[in-house]
Design goal:
Keywords: Membrane, Transmembrane, Transmembrane helix. This protein is mainly alpha-helical and about 170 residues long. The protein contains six helices and no strands.
Amino acid sequence: MVERLKRLSISSDATSIIQEGVGNVIVIASCATAAAALIVPDLIFGFLTLLRSVLESLFLPCKLLFDLASWLSGGSSVQSAVSSVDNARADATHVRALHAYFPTVMIIIGLMVYFFNEGSRNVATRFIAPGLHTAAAFLIFSPIALLLFPAICIEAISTIESREKNTQSG
Protein backbone atom coordinates (compact mmCIF):
# COMPACT_ATOMS: atom_id res chain seq x y z
CA MET A 1 0.00 0.00 0.00
CA VAL A 2 2.84 2.38 0.89
CA GLU A 3 4.54 1.63 -2.43
CA ARG A 4 1.42 2.77 -4.32
CA LEU A 5 1.42 6.07 -2.46
CA LYS A 6 5.08 6.63 -3.29
CA ARG A 7 4.46 5.91 -6.96
CA LEU A 8 1.48 8.23 -6.98
CA SER A 9 3.48 11.06 -5.44
CA ILE A 10 6.33 10.53 -7.90
CA SER A 11 3.98 10.68 -10.88
CA SER A 12 2.26 13.80 -9.54
CA ASP A 13 5.69 15.45 -9.07
CA ALA A 14 6.59 14.61 -12.65
CA THR A 15 3.27 16.01 -13.85
CA SER A 16 3.79 19.24 -11.91
CA ILE A 17 7.30 19.60 -13.36
CA ILE A 18 5.93 19.15 -16.88
CA GLN A 19 3.14 21.65 -16.20
CA GLU A 20 5.67 24.13 -14.82
CA GLY A 21 7.84 23.70 -17.92
CA VAL A 22 4.89 24.25 -20.25
CA GLY A 23 3.93 27.32 -18.24
CA ASN A 24 7.46 28.68 -18.54
CA VAL A 25 7.42 28.14 -22.31
CA ILE A 26 4.10 29.99 -22.57
CA VAL A 27 5.43 32.89 -20.48
CA ILE A 28 8.55 33.15 -22.65
CA ALA A 29 6.56 32.94 -25.90
CA SER A 30 4.02 35.50 -24.71
CA CYS A 31 6.65 38.01 -23.62
CA ALA A 32 8.77 37.49 -26.74
CA THR A 33 5.84 38.04 -29.11
CA ALA A 34 4.74 41.17 -27.24
CA ALA A 35 8.28 42.61 -27.29
CA ALA A 36 8.67 41.75 -30.97
CA ALA A 37 5.32 43.32 -31.84
CA LEU A 38 6.46 46.52 -30.16
CA ILE A 39 9.95 46.71 -31.66
CA VAL A 40 9.62 45.29 -35.20
CA PRO A 41 7.53 48.16 -36.66
CA ASP A 42 10.25 50.64 -35.67
CA LEU A 43 12.92 48.42 -37.18
CA ILE A 44 11.00 48.24 -40.45
CA PHE A 45 10.40 51.99 -40.44
CA GLY A 46 14.10 52.63 -39.82
CA PHE A 47 15.08 50.31 -42.65
CA LEU A 48 12.65 51.97 -45.06
CA THR A 49 13.86 55.43 -44.02
CA LEU A 50 17.44 54.36 -44.64
CA LEU A 51 16.48 52.94 -48.03
CA ARG A 52 14.68 56.16 -48.95
CA SER A 53 17.70 58.23 -47.92
CA VAL A 54 20.03 56.10 -50.03
CA LEU A 55 17.75 56.30 -53.06
CA GLU A 56 17.33 60.06 -52.65
CA SER A 57 21.08 60.52 -52.57
CA LEU A 58 21.40 58.45 -55.75
CA PHE A 59 18.74 60.45 -57.60
CA LEU A 60 19.74 63.85 -56.23
CA PRO A 61 22.22 64.71 -59.01
CA CYS A 62 19.64 63.81 -61.66
CA LYS A 63 17.00 65.98 -60.00
CA LEU A 64 19.40 68.91 -59.80
CA LEU A 65 20.37 68.50 -63.46
CA PHE A 66 16.75 68.33 -64.59
CA ASP A 67 15.88 71.39 -62.54
CA LEU A 68 18.85 73.27 -63.96
CA ALA A 69 17.79 72.24 -67.47
CA SER A 70 14.32 73.58 -66.82
CA TRP A 71 15.92 76.75 -65.41
CA LEU A 72 17.94 77.21 -68.60
CA SER A 73 14.95 76.64 -70.87
CA GLY A 74 12.26 78.28 -68.76
CA GLY A 75 14.19 81.21 -67.35
CA SER A 76 13.36 80.53 -63.70
CA SER A 77 15.92 81.37 -61.04
CA VAL A 78 18.67 79.09 -59.79
CA GLN A 79 17.25 79.53 -56.30
CA SER A 80 14.08 77.64 -57.29
CA ALA A 81 16.21 74.72 -58.59
CA VAL A 82 18.21 74.56 -55.36
CA SER A 83 15.10 74.90 -53.20
CA SER A 84 13.37 72.05 -55.08
CA VAL A 85 16.35 69.80 -54.31
CA ASP A 86 16.16 70.86 -50.66
CA ASN A 87 12.42 70.09 -50.58
CA ALA A 88 13.09 66.58 -51.90
CA ARG A 89 15.11 65.84 -48.77
CA ALA A 90 12.72 64.77 -46.06
CA ASP A 91 13.46 64.74 -42.39
CA ALA A 92 14.24 61.22 -41.30
CA THR A 93 13.83 61.98 -37.64
CA HIS A 94 11.34 59.58 -36.21
CA VAL A 95 11.13 59.87 -32.49
CA ARG A 96 8.84 57.30 -31.02
CA ALA A 97 7.57 58.12 -27.58
CA LEU A 98 8.01 55.76 -24.68
CA HIS A 99 4.94 53.97 -25.99
CA ALA A 100 7.03 51.09 -27.34
CA TYR A 101 10.46 51.14 -25.74
CA PHE A 102 9.66 51.57 -22.05
CA PRO A 103 7.03 48.77 -22.01
CA THR A 104 9.48 46.52 -23.88
CA VAL A 105 12.10 47.11 -21.20
CA MET A 106 9.46 46.42 -18.54
CA ILE A 107 8.52 43.15 -20.27
CA ILE A 108 12.14 41.99 -20.42
CA ILE A 109 12.85 42.97 -16.80
CA GLY A 110 9.64 41.24 -15.69
CA LEU A 111 10.64 38.08 -17.54
CA MET A 112 14.07 38.05 -15.89
CA VAL A 113 12.56 38.72 -12.46
CA TYR A 114 10.07 35.87 -12.99
CA PHE A 115 12.82 33.34 -13.67
CA PHE A 116 15.33 34.62 -11.11
CA ASN A 117 12.75 34.62 -8.30
CA GLU A 118 11.49 31.13 -9.11
CA GLY A 119 12.36 29.64 -5.73
CA SER A 120 12.21 32.82 -3.68
CA ARG A 121 10.57 32.66 -0.29
CA ASN A 122 10.13 36.43 -0.16
CA VAL A 123 6.47 37.25 -0.75
CA ALA A 124 7.09 40.75 -2.10
CA THR A 125 9.47 39.70 -4.88
CA ARG A 126 7.03 37.15 -6.29
CA PHE A 127 4.58 39.86 -7.27
CA ILE A 128 7.10 41.99 -9.18
CA ALA A 129 6.97 40.07 -12.49
CA PRO A 130 3.16 40.00 -12.88
CA GLY A 131 3.08 43.62 -11.72
CA LEU A 132 5.64 44.73 -14.32
CA HIS A 133 3.84 42.88 -17.10
CA THR A 134 0.47 44.31 -16.06
CA ALA A 135 1.94 47.83 -15.98
CA ALA A 136 3.48 47.26 -19.43
CA ALA A 137 0.11 46.08 -20.75
CA PHE A 138 -1.56 49.25 -19.44
CA LEU A 139 1.17 51.41 -21.00
CA ILE A 140 0.80 49.68 -24.36
CA PHE A 141 -3.01 49.91 -24.26
CA SER A 142 -3.61 48.33 -27.64
CA PRO A 143 -4.37 44.86 -28.97
CA ILE A 144 -0.67 44.10 -28.52
CA ALA A 145 -1.28 44.16 -24.77
CA LEU A 146 -3.44 41.05 -25.16
CA LEU A 147 -0.29 39.14 -26.08
CA LEU A 148 0.85 39.56 -22.47
CA PHE A 149 -2.37 38.15 -21.02
CA PRO A 150 -1.23 34.47 -20.96
CA ALA A 151 2.05 35.44 -19.28
CA ILE A 152 0.27 37.52 -16.63
CA CYS A 153 -2.20 34.70 -15.90
CA ILE A 154 0.47 32.01 -15.60
CA GLU A 155 2.69 34.22 -13.45
CA ALA A 156 -0.23 35.01 -11.15
CA ILE A 157 -1.17 31.33 -10.86
CA SER A 158 2.41 30.27 -10.14
CA THR A 159 2.74 33.07 -7.58
CA ILE A 160 -0.41 31.94 -5.79
CA GLU A 161 0.69 28.28 -5.90
CA SER A 162 4.14 29.05 -4.56
CA ARG A 163 2.63 31.15 -1.78
CA GLU A 164 0.33 28.26 -0.83
CA LYS A 165 3.27 25.82 -0.86
CA ASN A 166 5.28 28.13 1.42
CA THR A 167 2.40 28.56 3.86
CA GLN A 168 1.83 24.79 4.00
CA SER A 169 5.51 23.96 4.44
CA GLY A 170 6.37 26.87 6.73
